[in-house]
Amino acid sequence: MTQKITLGRSIAFLILVVCTAAMISPVIFMISTALKTKSEMMLFPPTWIPQTFQWKNFTELFTNDEIKFGILYQNSVIIAFFTVIGTVLSSACVAYGFSRYHGKGRNLMFMLMISTMMLPYPAIMIPQFLLFSKLEWMDSFLPLIVPAFFGSAYQIFLLRQFFNTLPNELYDSGKIDGCSEFRMFWNLALPLSGPALATVAIFSFVWSWNDLLGPVLYLSSQEKFTLPIGMAAMISSKFRIAPWNLLMCAAIMAVLPVVALFAIAQKRFTEGIVLTGIK
Fold first, then answer.
1. Which of 50, 86, 99, 128 could bridge across to 163 with cysteines, CB 3.0–4.6 Å?
2. Residue 77 has what pLDDT?
3. What per-residue string of b and e applies to 121-158 under the rule 16 or more CB within 10 Å gives b?
4. Which CATH number fits domain 55-275: 3.30.450.70, 2.60.40.10, 1.10.3720.10, 3.30.70.100?
């Protein structure tokens, strides 16, 4: 019996090693390419370890006037920051309302809201584009930021599930102390919702940070482009030969905020995923 358990664990460990190697190898190759010269990155078969580590590639990425990576990074940070703030605040307000109030038609409204998750983005893309055109918001950050302040169906669902786990006695004690409904939301529900709020913040940040279609639709000035647009332009006809080493440097810089955010909020993120499924 012991031999079977040991053999099973050995096979499972081997499978984990193979899967880990398969998933991490593109990351290693990305870092390796980022530190290569232009001539070395065109070699075939490719080399995994650069002959000389070209750290100046990162400096060139920020100083290249054609790429303007610093402006791209700044624009993405601004849009992602306000998107996270808007999504967290608006989704938390709506989720608290669905959790606390038990009026007639509440379940129907909640089902209608959840059903919007089944709508593909192309179905609402044209009406949104026409709306923002009429509002004269084209070539600005407003179409990418303002919708976040009206909530997200998926984030509202996650937060509502968490708010449902808070005991009614908590709100009763708030009423006894003379708290208004807003104070109970702001001073009682939100401070206890750290894991769920961290989950919503990470999801909204990653979605905004990686969004390519939205900026392509609404932005036309190069000084307002975001990272996804700039990185896509690096492999277009803008360059005679795509600077893959600089593109890999850009990919590393683009990944760093997401990795850092997840590393900082990892504990609360995993708690939020678990707790939102508990009723």
1. 99
2. 93
3. eeeeeeeeeeebeeeebeebbebbbbbbeebbbbbbbb
4. 1.10.3720.10
